[in-house]
Amino acid sequence: MDHGLRRGRLAERLVELELEALIVTRLPNVRYLTGFTGSNAQVVIAGDGSAVFLTDGRYGAQSAHEVPDLPRTVVREGYPRPLVEACRTLGVARAGFERRALTYEGWEQLTELAADLELVPIGPEVERLRRTKDPDEVALIERAQGFADLAFETVVLNGGLREGVTERHLALELENAMVEAGAEDRAFDSIVAFADHAAEPHHHLTDRELARGDMVKLDFGARSDGYHSDITRTVAFGEPDPRMREIRDLVAAAQRAGIDAVRPGVSTVEVDAAARSVIAEAGHGDAFPHGLGHGVGLEIHEAPFLRWDGGEDLVEGMVVTIEPGVYIPGLGGVRIEDMVEVTADGRREIPRSTKELMVLWASPPTT
């Protein structure tokens, strides 16, 4: 990862914003710009590309080998004062700060100490840089997805669905399988939803037991070196209700339309509409209440966001999810999700797990 190059790109943007520096306090952004993986750090980036990195005493040794190319300050007091001093060290008189990351109390403390420093709230400038992934980032996302694919095969396709297993236990088996495959952790709280529970787009795990005929919605992912993966599959445990088969086929067609719409220069609104129109024309428009997808990287949900509003054009190097769903209260729900890399000539699907409707059945263990 060329963190210096990333800081240079940000410095170029600061000139456009008429800022002499940016105070970066969001941890994913600090990691993107410096490579630091700890839980507490800030970095001040100046318009000439120079920078000062700050952390606390727990991370002095770690930051020395993770951030060897920047001056490092190990602080022993509250952060507003060291941040202001870092700006002064860099000779900065006008600095931006991430308004999304700073609380009102933090802003009060910062401005109280910065009498000779003009502070300007700015939007997600680092996040805008992060939208486009370099090849190293894409490789880490793909590696994380490989761990999730392996867990799906190991747990779901090889007998993990069985009468009496609970949502909570099946989620734990998936997460353990990802870690055993090599993931550093799960990417987010896994969603496992049986039967009518799948009608909740973001269902929380319960102790409900799996029964024959249930459709099972599985939304999960792994993390590798800080980068996330995200996949959803819906399978059947025994022969499902015919209505659910129809819904599954509808969602699959909608996802195909969404994926086929992905290419450089196309608006995220257009991609959302390509999938959403398939569901709406089938009479289930109201049953698809969320956006079509989102970017994935150092955060599980990051720009760009594929919705019906607030669009932006896709560009080569973005990695986005395409995840339409239909949710019918009292019956169930289906979502199919894949990460897609925007390539120069279109798109590339990253997961390799089958999207076909798998009808699985395992007898309960004998005692």
Describe the 3D structure.
The chain has 367 residues and is of the alpha+beta class. It has 10 helices and 20 strands. The chain has helices at residues 3-16, 27-34, 60-66, 80-89, 104-113, 125-130, 135-160, 167-181, 242-260, 268-281; strands at 21-24, 41-46, 51-56, 72-75, 94-98, 118-122, 185-186, 191-194, 214-220, 222-224, 227-228, 231-237, 293-295, 302-306, 319-322, 325-328, 332-335, 338-343, 346-349, 359-360. The strands form 6 sheets. A 6-stranded mixed β-sheet has the order 4-3-2-1-5-6, sandwiched between helices. It has a 4-stranded mixed β-sheet with strand order 8-9-12-20, with helices on one face. A 3-stranded antiparallel β-sheet has the order 7-10-11. β13 (293-295) and β14 form a beta hairpin. The radius of gyration is 23 Å and the shape is elongated. The N and C termini lie far apart (53 Å). The model has no long low-confidence stretch (mean pLDDT 94).
